[in-house]
């Protein structure tokens, strides 16, 4: 089987699945993130892109029989995923991990701005907007204010330096904060989301693994009122960290880590258990009880030196 035959068969398969397919696309036919890559086949359906790249060549010439192009597949993120990115960027900013916060904040901002421009009906001459073209178009279309445009222009330059392994002479946290604020202003509200700003807990974060499954993320966020009810007046002193992991049987489970100044505990909840209110309440109660035990143990331990100094 020859290389062109292989590509044509793959192209036909994607066409049958409803994709628009371009073989050997020109630079202007590729989305911006593929502009500098060599692409053999580009398939697009709605906001999903699939690209096939040439195989990595070794010293020997690759034969047609072993032709195995590499595959990359991406799609535009939904608002739930973007909310998660911004929440994570804020958490990183609070811990002074400014470079990491910048990368996540920029990723979310670029995606949100791309969608905002698309909703205005503005089209690029390319498959997708290049960054400079995107922010300039947003300014002309009155999506961005002048100050926001200047912040994005500066943030873009800083992001490029960081992701390419350079250290900016100055990286003000205020730039990252402004990116997050702009992104939140432009991000469409999602009715299913429980806004993190309305939480009574000290902090709430949703890990990368959980954010990959939008439906499960929404389910977890809808659990927050129950968790706050169980924690009661102590909620303001508790941090909650949700994520998704692989359980002992190989199936996905949701992890919840509760922590305060005295310690931390972690529990797991199977996705099906979120639909069983009594079971879910029991799981959360047990985890809260575990944290109370850790707290009591450490509080008593901290008092022991004082008691020994005072004597009988």
Labels describing this entry:
312 residues; alpha+beta; Four Helix Bundle (Hemerythrin (Met), subunit A); Double Stranded RNA Binding Domain; 3 domains; 4-stranded antiparallel sheet; globular
Concise structural overview:
The protein is α+β, with helices and mostly antiparallel strands. Helix content is 47%, strand content 16%.
Provide structural commentary.
- Helices cover 47% and strands 16% of the residues.
- The chain has 312 residues and is of the alpha+beta class.
- It has 3 domains: 3-75, no CATH class; 79-186, Four Helix Bundle (Hemerythrin (Met), subunit A); 196-302, 2-Layer Sandwich (Double Stranded RNA Binding Domain), CATH 3.30.160.
- Strands 1-2-3-4 form a 4-stranded antiparallel beta sheet, covered by helices on one side. The protein has a 4-stranded mixed beta sheet with strand order 5-6-7-8.
- Strand 7 and strand 8 (263-269) form a beta hairpin.
- Helix 2 runs antiparallel to helix 3 and helix 3 crosses helix 4 (131-140).
- The termini are far apart.
- The relative contact order is 0.08.
- Mean pLDDT is 80; it is low at 60-67 and 190-198.
